[in-house]
Amino acid sequence: MARARLRDLGIATGSLPPGRWNAITDVPGVRVGTTTLIRDTPSIIRTGVTAIWPRGPELWTDAVFAGIHSFNGNGEMTGWAWIAEQGLLASPICITNTQSVGVVRDAVCALSVRDNPSTPWVLPVVAETFDGWLSDATSFPVTAEHAIAALDAAATGPVAEGNVGGGTAMICHEFKGGTGTASRVVMAAGEQFTVGALVQANYGARELLRVDGVPVGREIGTDVVPSPRDAPREAGSIIVVLATDAPLLPIQCQRLARRATTGLAWVGGIGFNGSGDIFLAFATGNHMRQGEAISALRMLSPDNMNSLFQAAAEATEEAILNALTAAETMTGHAGHTAHALPLDRLVDVMHRFRPSR
Questions:
Q1: 275 is catalytic
Q2: pLDDT score of 29
Q3: What are the E-state strand segments in 257-335?
Q4: Beta-carbon count within 10 A of 192 CB
Q5: Residues near 158 by Cβ (< 8 Å), separated by ≥ 6?
């Protein structure tokens, strides 16, 4: 069976409707770009960069509010301390492999000089998960040019998933993992808002995997699809980026980011000690323009946040599952192989447990 998104298989999780593309780019202004590196010489490389722009080039001087949540902190996200302090994000977000965080961070700094030299400084947000089991990470294959290419290629519309960008060589619940995205549309305080999620999924044990509550990981065990031999199943990570066009303040963004934990738990993530599970949420519904002494702001009331909380959890859940259903079997460094989740078996298991759907 050809690789497909979860809903294309007739499997829908949650109760809220998705946006037009069922992607983080359903939030107006959000753009995503990727650079994917796959080669076998002189080293076996399976890696890349994923770039997310909360809004267009005006972001350098028109910041968005943002918040961070670390569910388990065995990972890295640069720039988090300033977000925690000030609650503002004024640069694009990149996700890559562990060894490439520094070069990608420097690339974002260089891009700010190229595109907006009046900006005196920038503290880029760059997150990572480890891809050294399928890629020769110690050869440091990602360059500043690769990162800038992903940033320059960012666009609205459908988002590539699976073995692309920073998610190229990732493993999730002992199947091939990677990049995934989803969105939800909600009504709050009489207005329509969108919440989108993008994940880089590289975590989890096989027996914990669930799809809409169905114990898929137990039903498609290692006797059916081999687990990546010697891969550290309790030492993976997941990065979740949530976006919304709702008018939220920084503390509300932080609260929204925490709800990614619920979506992760629904799929089967428990935050192993060796896992870097770091979540960022940003909201484009306000503008903080450079040079303004006083900014006019709107704020969704706390009592009207519940639908956004549900949307964040549902979008995170489906984004992880889209990463799994889109990813293809990959053989890489040292002959290691990560097998894709078999979609025909997934459909069979879901029909067996949910015959009426």
A1: yes
A2: 97
A3: 276-289, 330-331
A4: 10
A5: 21, 23, 25
Q: CB 296: neighbour CB atoms within 10 A?
A: 7
Task: Identify the structural domains of the chain with CATH numbers, from first to last.
Answer: 18-330+337-345 (3.60.70.12)
Q: Which of 237, 303, 307, 356 is catalytic?
A: 237
Map tokens 């593309």 to a residue.
21
Which listed residue (62, 136, 212, 277) is catalytic? 277
State yes or no: pLDDT of 291 exceeds 90. Answer: no
Angle (CA) 129 80 248, round 5°: 110
Q: What is the CB-side half-sphere exposure of residue 127 using CA atoms within 13 A? A: 31
Sheet strands (E) in the chain: 31-39, 45-53, 62-73, 88-89, 93-97, 125-129, 171-172, 175-176, 178-188, 191-202, 237-244, 276-289, 330-331, 337-338
Amino acid, res. 158:
P
The tokens for 74 are 């065995």
**CA 16, CA 18: separation in Å to the nearest integer?**
7
Indicate the pTM of the whole model: 0.98
Burial pattern 167-189, b for ≥16 Cβ within 10 A else e, equals bbbbbbbbbbbbbbbbbbbbebe
The answer to whether 244 and 280 have CB atoms below 8 angstroms apart is no
Q: What share of the chain is helix, strand, coil (3-state, %, to 5)?
A: 30, 30, 40
Q: What is the pLDDT of residues 190-242, one digit of tens each?
A: 999 999 999 999 999 999 999 999 999 999 999 999 998 677 667 789 999 99
- Between CA 31 and CA 53 the distance in angstroms is 5
Q: What's the rounded Cα separation, in Å, for the pair 30 and 155?
A: 8
Rounded Cα distance, 259 and 313, in Å? 5
Q: What is the pLDDT of residue 357?
A: 64
d(CA 254, CA 309): 11
pLDDT in tens, 79-103: 999 999 999 999 999 999 999 999 9
100, 135, 275, 307: the catalytic one is 275
